[in-house]
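During the reporting period the student researcher (J.K.) took over the structure-prediction task from the postdoctoral fellow and processed the backlog of single-chain submissions. One of the processed entries is reproduced below for the supervisory committee.
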Amino acid sequence: MDHIHHEDRCTNYIDIGPVNKVINLLCCWFEDPSSEAVKKHQARILDYLWVAEDGMKMQGYNGSQLWDTAFATQAFCESGMGEEFKEVMMRAHKYIDNSQVRDDSPNMSKYYRHWSKGAWPFSTRDHGWPISDCTSEGLKASLSCQRFDFIHPLADQRYFDAVNIILSYQNKDGGWATYENTRTGPWVEYLNPSEVFGNIMIDYSYVECSSACIQSMLTFKKRFPDFKTDVIKASVRRGIEFILSIQRDDGSWYGSWAVCFTYGTWFGLEALTSEAIKLIDDPKITERARVAVSKACSFILSKQREDGGWGESYLSSQDKVYSQSKDSQVVNTGWAMLGLLAAREAKAEPAISDSVLGKLKRGVRFLNKSMEKNGDFPQQHISGVFNHNCMITYANYRNIFPIWALGRFRSVCGEMEI
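J.K. obtained the following structure tokens:
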């Protein structure tokens, strides 16, 4: 019960997720039905309930507020629309500001907790669990907003705290996991009690988390070039080597947190920028990265559909083999286009080839055609996933990633007839 109470207090009785939220509540009730702990638990049940278009749901988390806000903020910044929506950007950055975790949880060693100070959570500061890629996206989003003179930056030390925790999350294999370092070997999966979820006994390194951490440190270096220069360089090198080592033979990366190879390959390409390769300054890695980018682009291009879009089924996550969805999906199309446009930066080329540009234009036409009259994009197939078999609805993805892709296309390719 001591560990249960510690988790409850550190998360303001939200707990890390809905499963242990219910279990912790029941444990507290059996301990003392009239306790303050039970009352505080009951007050946070509503955090997990969500009324969707098709009825009430129990969420798999208490929301994705910081995650969505960080992505949306970067989409606005890269699309050049930030100046047009000043109040939106100011409010978004204020949420990012308020959501950063300011303190470590008490008695970290006793309760097997990673440190928290400087991290960003997936949802809210009340929830408080630090996560590597959420910290990275929060850091990137805040730093991206500094291009606007109407947004005040965070104190330098808060950015330093974020980078310190990102560095601390790096695993021995060079990659990054989610909540904590990989603490033991995969043999413990033999003890996995779940009949649904795979690879849940330890935290593994992922292409998405690793890419996000690399991107955030590169963004950070632009503003703070003298902070832990050698440490960051060594960290980026190890991270790039990890990402190169897990690329599949067909050029893709398996995405563990969304559907699926399209998502993972986008993150893989985002990591292999010319900026990262120049920082490492190793001809062998430069050549490996060039080959990896070429293979990844070929993979993405091979999956474009007749209507110009991309569409991947959740079955890819389950079967670990690319599976086309029945129809093109605006979210998958956004990821594919972002990856192809990131590849241009990765190759450090002055222009995109005519053949790739033609395919990107087809993607733009698909997204333009898919937009509804009110500016919304349609809610299509489920796009999120965790532990291979549990699918997650991210309602904001349908707008964030098409906007981001269209904005990046305009930024990279300029105004042109589509």
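The committee noted the following: The radius of gyration is 21 Å.
J.K. will present the remaining backlog at the next meeting.
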